[in-house]
Amino acid sequence: MNNVSKVKLLKLSVMVALALSATANANVTDKDISNDQMTTDDVVSYGLGLRGQRYSPLTMINDKTVSELRPVWGFSLGGEKQRGQESQPLVKDGVMYITGSYSRVYAIDAMTGDELWQYDARLPDGIMPCCDVINRGVALYDNLVIFATLDSKLVALNKDTGKVVWKKKVEDYKAGYSITAAPIVVKGKVITGVAGGEFGIVGKVRAYDALTGSIVWERPTVEGHMGYVWENGKKIEAGISGGAPGKTWPGDLWKSGGAAPWLGGTYDKDVDLLFFGTGNPAPWNSHLRPGDNYFSSSRLAINPDNGKIVWHFQTTPHDGWDYDGVNELVSFDYKVNGKTIKAAATADRNGFFYVLNRENGDFIRGFPFVDKITWAKGLDDKGRPIFDDANRPGNPASSKDGKKGSTVVSAPSFLGGKNWMPMAYSKDTELFYVPSNEWEMSIWNEPTAYKKGAAYLGAGFTIKAINDDYIGVLRAIDPKTGKEVWRYKNYAPLWGGVLTTAGNLVFMGNPEGYLMAFDAKTGEIKYKFNTGSGVIGSPITWTMGGEQYISVLSGWGGAVPLWGGEVAKRVKNFNQGGMVWTFKLPK
Ligand code: CA
Ligand code: CA
């Protein structure tokens, strides 16, 4: 080799090294987030794309090859804090970012499973999470890893060091606020909801400048509360959406009305709208609050620039069963007579599956996705439930001693036909894969009054399985017809998210500990691996070094063992854990 060639080679290798290091240190941009679903070498948003379809175009791992799948590394979350692990990992430039129970964050070498750094939020003693000390994941933006804590703060960490860059109090945890959802980043703003509907908080969605943590807007989700935008540091009233203060509430009850958007949101850039669901109106005892109680148990479309509510769709008006309407609204398109319908779908806790027009919130169709619904006889042509009045838990004020209303048996149970665990949508099969549960509850009402930081239910309940041999049902549902194409029945209630891929596969974990892969068209089980503890996290897939990987968190916990009545007995022998498992095909 002559000297000129050597110099050329040296130059070339320097350029390659620079290019590699540029990749290794690349910050996450709005474009990266916007294109996340189709860029297979990273996962930079909750939902594998802000629409939340949880679909990957990857095909290396497919219905023919998946039987060869094997774990390549496992990572322990350590400590004694082994509670439910509901996190969805994110991956960027060979680094995986996950959250663990008790508001912990980890950066892990995605090739080897080596820990790069760990961050522990120092939580105060008085936190009030309703349903286990879980967290569902981080957001990535620029050089930041952003997550929310059980004491209701947003924290942004440097992605390389895990050191705090900014930290903001979102709300007062002493009033019952907490945050468990993964935030999302839309157009440079980090957007979060809050939890606390069981404590009579006021639900709200907030947007912060992702780089600095400065607040941009606030949108309360209980009718009557004013929204605000901040311009040049000044707080400006953004007006009321949807009528006068508490119009659909009696008296002052809207002031502690709940409607917590605790599961976070999705975003669709076609219509430039955020979609957030809202939880139960507070208290649970519906006789204390006649009216529809806007905007509880609803889906809200929100302008990402100023927090204005553009449309709302209420799945359970005057909710009396804790049918939180928080479940994710997933945008998808389909064709009718050659015309594209911009739709969005959601599987509600109340047992009905809804297809809406995502441009304006119009009801397209709805149908039951569980076998048993007692509280409503169906939906009318606007999607409003046709109540079965005999199935509303009775008014304690009409009882002899005024202390307990009549008990009814309602299905689904308050843990829902589907709870937080996200479904997936495949554009190949045009099916939704819905993790659901068949259970019912005895429920009754009691008197209650609001007290800051105290449980505000006015109800008692006990949950029961409907069938001896299964509670969980993974369903493949055609959103155009309501037809169930296949089902997989699971003994324990399902509590983890779903992933689908162009390899004709559906991935999901179960509380028994298995990560499973199903044929997306038929539901046939193609692969299962026991992770050692219940899987209630959401699986992801991505490529690295030319190979396709799958990752999922394992670690039993969540709401079921805490709130599950007789169902909790069914799962009491499941062991706790706290692991990330990563899989690929052999070379
Ligand atoms: Ca991606
Ligand atoms: Ca609730």
What would a concise description of this structure say?
The chain has 587 residues and is mainly beta. It is built from four helices and 40 strands.
Strand element count: 40
Radius of gyration: 23 Å
Q: Mind telling me which CATH architecture this is?
A: 8 Propeller
Mean pLDDT: 95
* Fourth-tier CATH superfamily name: Quinoprotein alcohol dehydrogenase-like superfamily
Helix content: under 10%
**Domain count:** 1
CATH topology: Methanol Dehydrogenase, Chain A
Which structural class is indicated by helix and strand composition?
Answer: mainly beta
- Counted by DSSP, the helix tally is 4
The distinct ligands, each listed once, are: calcium ion
* Biggest sheet layout: 6 strands, antiparallel
Q: Quote the distance from N terminus to C terminus.
A: 35 Å
The CATH class turns out to be Mainly Beta
3D shape: globular
The strands making up the biggest β-sheet line up spatially as 11-12-13-14-15-16
Range of strand content: 35-45%
